[in-house]
Amino acid sequence: MSTSKTVTKDPICGMSVDESSAHSVKRDGQTFYFCSDHCRQKLLSAPAGTKPEEKSHDCCGYHTKGVAQEAEDTIVKIMTKAARLIAGL
Questions:
Q1: Per-residue pLDDT tens digits for 20-39
Q2: N or C, fewer C-beta in 10 Å, the chain?
Q3: In contact, 25 and 32? CB cutoff 8 Å
C-alpha cells in the first residue's frame, strides 16, 4: 500500500517539509509548516499579518550549526571514552 506525502515549503527558510511530520502553526487563518521549531518561532515572533525576511535553505545557519555541533559532541564523547579506556589499561 502506498501512502502519499504532502510536501510544502517552509515560509521562513524555503526548505521542503512533509506536512505530516513538520512543525506547524495556525496563523492569520492559514496553517504554516516548518522544518524546525526555530523557523516556527521566527514566524511567531513577527507581528500578525507579516513574516520575517525569508532566507534560502539555511535560516541563519541553524541547520548547518546543528549538524556540526552534533558531530562535535559525538567526537568528544568518543574521545572521552577512549581516554578512560586507555587510562584503565
A1: 888 899 988 889 999 888 88
A2: N
A3: yes
